[in-house]
Amino acid sequence: MTASEDGLKALMLQGLDGDAAAHSRLLSELARLLRAYFVRRLFNDPAEAEDLVQETLIAVHTRRVSFDRSQPFTPWAYAMARYKLIDHLRRTRRRPSVPLEDAGVLLAPEDTAQATAGADLDRLMADLPEKQRAAIRHTKLDGLSVAETAALTGQSEVSVKVGVHRGLKSLMSRIRKSEEGQDDG
């Protein structure tokens, strides 16, 4: 099964409704995605990555009742993964060295301004085609690689790259038009 947002969310909802087999499949699919997520951020240390995968799966399992059924699943799950990664880096007193443009993957929103910005971004992206929206969300906001995003969405890597490029171009055009409209007022 290729893990997609829709597929993972469906498994989560089925699990919440009491389907133990669906919950088990969800955790298996999520484990595969989380392994790639953590290995990439822990400088290819598979042992540490596996520990964090297990900690995150436990958190997803124990906190599943807090999942809002009206929201996407993967950002919720990856938020837990980010918190586990940050906790791990604090415990081990490691300071990762990442390029500035990738620093956002290590951080989670902690204040209302960031939450508001997230809501604004959701509204701005709402008119984009679903494939572009998913490509941008997973690569630019969730911090997944193009390959991870392709696997998650069922698109080719080229389609993901094109979707990000076209989607960002469309967003920039909308922002410029919005700014021009404000200048006129």
Percent in strands: under 5%
> Which radius of gyration do the C-alpha atoms yield?
17 Å
Name the structural class.
mainly alpha
- Outline the low-pLDDT stretches: 108-114
What's the total helix number? 8
The CATH class designation of the largest domain is Mainly Alpha
Biggest sheet record: none
Give me the CATH superfamily of the largest domain.
RNA polymerase sigma factor, region 2, helix turn helix motif
Termini separation comes to: 52 Å
| Number of domains as seen in the coordinates | 2
Count the beta strands: 0
Order of helices and strands: HHHHHHHH
CATH topology of the largest domain: Rna Polymerase Sigma Factor, Chain: A
CATH hierarchy: architecture of the largest domain? Orthogonal Bundle
Q: Fraction of residues in helices?
A: over 70%
